[in-house]
Amino acid sequence: MQPTRKKQIAILGSTGSIGTQALDVIAAHPDRFEARVLTAANRWQLLAEQARRFVPAAVVIAGEQHYEPLREALADLPIAVYAGSDALCQVVTSQEVDMVLTAMVGFAGLAPTIAAIRAGKAIALANKETMVVAGELINSLAREHRVPILPVDSEHSAIFQSLMGEVSPIEKIILTASGGPFRTFTTEQLQGVTPAMALRHPNWDMGAKITIDSATMMNKGFEVIEAKWLFGVEAERIQVVVHPQSVVHSAVQYADGAVKAQLGVPDMRVPIQLAFSYPERLASTFDRLDWYAMHDLTFERPDTERFRCLALAYESLRQGGNMPCIVNAANEVVNRAFLEERCSFLAMADIIAHAMQHTPFIAQPTYDDYVATDAEARRIAAARLKS
Ligand code: NAD
Ligand code: MG
């Protein structure tokens, strides 16, 4: 057998939920993958531990105040240490990097993702906010630089897998949603929910931001937008279906009425590993489905009155232009505010709707327009939050 070169992977956000699970996948397949670059926002001690174990060529800590302690902690190793957000954009362009896993949170992921695409790196896309904000721009850059974008989000990986081997167009995408921890709550009950309650997600153990987004169902709204850009399907043909057991990870319906779905135990390492190894599937020791234990798989319609954020995301997609960018920015502000108990659960949608009405609309935004829109929508949302 020919020895194959190990895939060199840069992980943006290696200390997070997706990042650490990606390192599990790399550790399980040392013959196939190598962590070439690791980056984090602030948790420099964990980043140093990871660097000691995986010995990447470079690490970046975005918070510049952590540069000195991180450099000292790694002084005995042949690892280049950088700090600051600009360094994120530089390290992903390194010649040796084959693939970039975008596992950082929010709008901050946009610039390094663009830098990676321009440098011709394959993208394993976890940072859905990048597609929400600038899906059209990302797609055109990816085409221009002939770069594949492999979905890591479990639903999009399921859709991607349901499309494997097909040559016919998609009739409909069935995007499943767990419904989050408040699925059965009345509007009255929703009024009093706390961050601690929202952080207890029934099926997935994820970072705080996406867990809150799951509780409001903004996460599902973002996934509709992400699906539109990844698979070229209009919003009217993306149906959100609440499926509390999270076994059916999503599905595709074709012109003959046949539906293909991907199922499995909820475990993000499955889509992460597939994004790394595609088109091959590698062996894993992850849990298998127990078919005799799945008595009640259920499916229901989402309630966009109780979960207004889902409706706002659809509306932003209908309006297009920089509107999804506005929704994302306002959502980042209220998400953080809710976590810090500065905003009630139901006020989040009100403030996002306010930002949608008051941030200047741009029909054909450029990259600079997105940056300006993000700043302006954050300002408007923050001001509304205070009043
Ligand atoms: P997390 O909060 O657990 O981890 C985020 C990582 O990014 C950390 O390493 C952090 O240090 C880094 N980071 C955050 N902000 C940064 C910034 N401004 N600059 C540089 N680095 C920064 O988040 P997560 O749950 O792993 O989610 C990461 C992304 O993947 C999000 O876009 C999320 O929507 C998406 N995603 C996550 C899951 C999941 O199961 N966690 C599933 C689907 C999609
Ligand atoms: Mg998802």
Distance between the termini: 67 Å
- Stretches where pLDDT is under 50 for at least 5 consecutive residues are none
Chain-averaged pLDDT: 97
Strand order of the largest sheet: 4-3-2-1-5-6-7
Our estimate of the beta-strand percent is: 5-15%
What helical percentage do the residues reach? Answer: 40-55%
Write down the overall geometry: globular
Unique ligands = nicotinamide-adenine-dinucleotide, magnesium ion
- Give a quick account of the main beta sheet: strands, pairing sense, barrel closure: 7 strands, parallel
SS class: alpha/beta
Give the gist of this structure.
This protein has 16 helices and 11 strands. By secondary structure, the protein is of the alpha/beta class.
Structure characterization notes:
There is one protein chain. The protein is an alpha/beta fold and 387 residues long. It has 16 helices and 11 strands. It has helices spanning 17-28, 44-54, 67-73, 85-91, 110-118, 128-144, 154-163, 187-191, 195-198, 208-216, 218-231, 269-277, 308-319, 323-339, 347-358, 367-386; strands at 7-12, 33-40, 58-61, 80-83, 99-102, 122-125, 149-151, 172-177, 238-242, 248-253, 259-263. The strands form 2 sheets. It has a 7-stranded parallel sheet, sandwiched between helices. A 4-stranded mixed sheet has the order 9-8-10-11, covered by helices on one side. It is globular, with a radius of gyration of 20 Å. The model has no long low-confidence stretch (mean pLDDT 97). Magnesium ion (MG) binds at residues 153-155, 223.
